[in-house]
């Protein structure tokens, strides 16, 4: 687990907020973070926190499947 992850934003929801979804492709474990903006000043600290909890994955993909149902 946590060797390959995918991440993407789930549009602008909850008013003026964005939802960042990070998923472990093996276990399907989700990390969800609500952000006010999607610039590097807010996104990088989220990944730093997630990587410190679970380790740095070997592969980090953009997951466009999140928009499909």
From TrEMBL:
Domain of life of the source: Eukaryota
GO molecular function: nucleic acid binding
InterPro entries referenced in this protein's UniProt entry, alphabetically: RNaseH-like_sf, RNaseH_sf
Protein name as catalogued: Integrase catalytic domain-containing protein
Record organism: Capitella teleta
